Amino acid sequence: MRSYRRNRPDRRPPGRLVATAAVLAGVLVAAAGCAAGDDPARSATEAVVPVGTASPLPSGGPATGAPSAPAQVPDTLRFDAKTLDGTPFSAAGLAGKPVVLWFWAPWCATCASQAWTVAEIAPKYRDTVPIVGVAGLGEQKAMKDFVTEFELAGTLQLDDRAGTLWRRFEIVEQSTFLIIDRDGRVVHQGFLDGEDLTRRVAALAG
Predict the structure, then answer these.
(1) Are 146 and 152 in contact, with CB atoms under 8 Å apart?
(2) Residue 177 three-state SS
(3) 139-165: burial string, b at 16+ Cβ within 10 Å, e else
(4) pLDDT digits (tens, 9 = 90+) for 89-138
(5) How far is CA 143 from CA 11, 29, 92, 206, in A?
(6) Where do the structural domains in the chain lie, given as residue ranges?
(7) Quick one: fold of 75-205?
(8) What is the pTM assigned to this prediction?
């Protein structure tokens, strides 16, 4: 369109009307073609990205300093609870990481034998593979005493006396470890001894 304005005649001698008309016809055809593909109001430096495609990025990856997209929350981590001390907890905050849910009861001898391993490895993998205890089938005082006795205070422990999470994940016995990978898929549900638990958590962290 700028080309049209630049070449548009204002007042010309009658003898050049035929030539002017020919020039105008050619310019109008070119302008129509531009209108189909370009928006005159769009800045010349603005990138045009077709709908449904990603914005063009350098071959090295996202631009430096660009915020990373939040992880999508899988169905397995769409639940809320409270910790043994009454603090609200949302599992959605664990999305994007492998997670281990440990279902235990305070009177369970097997749980007691596994508690030492959990207390040992959970702090080490807190930021990479969180281990979350889900206490059930008992009284809150007994659960708190269990945590104190086996030095689990540094590990997140949920109060599930009502059995909400046990039913949600169809837990039928204690002690049960339920391992969720970073994509939200359950990759193990069942018993693990201390050695197997340590090996699996280390593999997930790597």
Answers:
(1) yes
(2) strand
(3) eeeebbebbeebebeebbbbbbeeeeb
(4) 999 999 999 999 999 999 999 999 999 999 999 999 999 999 999 999 99
(5) 96, 82, 24, 32
(6) 2-37, 75-205
(7) Glutaredoxin (3.40.30)
(8) 0.67
